[in-house]
Amino acid sequence: MKAAIPAILLFFAPILFPAAFAQSIHTKEKWKLLSTGSEAERVEAARVLSKYYQSESMDSLRLVGESLFFYGIDNHYQPAIEFGKITLAEFYVLTGRINDGIVMAKSTIQALQERGDVKELCNVFGIISAGYRKLEDGNSSLLWAQKIVAYVKTDPEITDKTIGTVYLAEAYLLKNKEKEAVQIYKDYIQKAAKIKNYHGLSTAYSRLGDIYRISKRLDLAEKYFHLAFQATQKVNLKSPKAHALNNLAIMYFEKGDTAKAHAYFKDALAIREAVNDLKAISESYYNLGDYHFFLDQYSEALWWYKKSTAFAERNQLLSEEKDGLLAMAEVYRQTNVSEEAVRCLEKAVSILSDLKLRQNADTEDLTSLQHEIWKADFEQKEVKEMKQESSFRFYTLLVLTAGLFITVILLAVKLNQLKKQA
Questions:
Q1: I need a surface site. Which of 86, 149, 188, 282 has the fewest CB within 10 A?
Q2: pLDDT tens across 103-127, in order?
């Protein structure tokens, strides 16, 4: 089975790439600009869409990065190439190809430094710090987070002084320095509140709530999870709101208030069903199964596990279907229905095989994309080198021509002087 309820679906993904959002994001309008706008409009549209999809849709995040990168290559527009790669680096880190994402992010640093784009540099350093955090390399994560903070302190053009502090706090948490991390988050909250960065506030409140929940300070956890939910109500993103409700459900379950826990699990499910977030819906069904399982209400638990499994099967969510089957098998084991337990386990094993095939196909697809990017980078580098070589030849020829012209003039002057002397 999955881990017990307190570890399920914590509000985690936005921690990697915290961002501020406007009250309303018109995605159709931004997609139109990304497809048909001017060079600058395309980059700006991609910037808005990438922030939105970091917590809403990984497939869409990838599409944004691909579209912008290949537009930049086709039109020789460097900012589009760079931000396309940065967006894809985020995608790789968020979807598990962490080292590839880190390498791709690092490949943009030199060009950004040469152009003096400090804000985008900070964004890249954040991706790298987040990547190392996922790799559980606390020292590297801290190093790159400190680079962001140093830039923010010294650059007067960066008005948002909260940039980088979340990465710094997470790096300290990874190094088991909870006190420092908590203080950084509290400082961040004060600054984020002043600039009305509600998405950032919801992230920080959620993380403080989770820190206190893990250390069994449940009253403080409750306080911060409620603050996180209040912040999400001011942001036009449904997934963070559902995550915040789910965190409250987990916390109330740990406090022994099962009625409230059940209510919040159902509220989170309602939001996910309203926006048709398929993966999260399956997870919510599963959560409700876990809720009843840990209360020894096996018939109710089995009903929700079956619902989660059937929903996952209909929507081709292999990993969620496999988890549901394993949970069902555990219920059958607990209730001594051995034949059904074996049947569920056998089907789960079969799905594992299919899952490996799908993962291999996804890996091949992403590797193919990466090769396309490397190939485009290489071709761009060749074109740049050819231009540099052509420029060198042109200026060399120009210098030689000028030198020859001057020599001819000097010879003419000298001959003229000799004629006069004769």
A1: 149
A2: 989 989 988 888 888 889 999 999 9
